[in-house]
Amino acid sequence: MTGHAVPLSSSVYSGRSVKVDYLRGLFAIFVALGHLYDMARLNSNASGWLDVPRTLFGTNWVIGFVVISGFLIEASVESMMKRGGGVARYVKARATRIAPLYYVGLAAALSTEWLGNLAFGVDARPAYWLPGGSHAVIGQLFLLQNVIHGVGTFGAFAATSTVAFEVWYYWLWALRIKFFKQRALPLLLLAAVLLLTPKAVRLQSSLTADFCLFWGYWLIGSYAFHYREALMSSKGVRLLARHSYLLLGLFMASYLIFPAPVLAKKYWLLAFLFALCLLKEERPDPSPSSRRFATLLGDASYPVFIMHGPAGILAAWGLDAWVVNDFYLRYAALLGVTAAVSLIVVFILERPLMKWRRRV
Q1: pTM for this entry
Q2: How many domains would you assign to the chain?
Q3: pLDDT single digits (tens) 257-275
Q4: Radius of gyration of the chain (CA)
């Protein structure tokens, strides 16, 4: 690599952010906890009270993932532009980051359906994230699931809708490198308004509402990074950021009091809380053990997000075939299988891929 080359894996940070690694790892685990809970509860002897803690996991943390993605992509883009990188370098960096594990996960989802039918029979398949037809598979191949109307998800790969969203956001963000540069970044607010009010531009017949809404959450993360210095110069923002974990905890705890549909209308507030968590000052000089654990969590975040669907569905399929009804045993089994599969993917694919990207 020459002295002026831009590595595919670039960052404005000196090293990795321990805080960001912790957050994205925990968010992935919380998303998986919710989905695996639903899989374990089907055909089990679970009692009603267990539905209460379930409300604390799931979609809420997916929003956090999207905010983090916007934050980190803006960080990467600004670093890349300072080093002289352009759109071609950006596209290559995003493709090598997302595509390998995404398509490994899709292959795992397709294999799950084949292996489950072969080993346990179609009648024993858990009624959760049922597979669609060939059009659904084609939709996943081109990352169109839930992006446009009429293209749904494929069975065990259903959790990846937001990954598809983010890939399209990446391509939109390439315009930021090509045309807008740093001083004109506020002009992208116009793009946010257009996408968040699809009726104004007659997009309601093509793009889904979720795709438009999550674009707004993604932009919150991007703007939080770009304007972080200006934001943190405000005493009010610093105070909110300092207590952001507490505020986030209070929001999540409110699910124990208010119905989920009511709080779903407040997802914008949740996205801002996630952005405040990212702006919170890092603890100085974390211990080596804390760094190692944060690195493992960060490395595992994408594998957990991609693989918990195939691993969980196949494990639940087997438990249903063997008539295992105890909820706690089912949940423990699904968690164990998902953790094992995710760690295997971390060490045989994710870390070697990241090492290669840093080298080239």
Answers
A1: 0.88
A2: 1
A3: 887 778 888 889 999 999 9
A4: 21
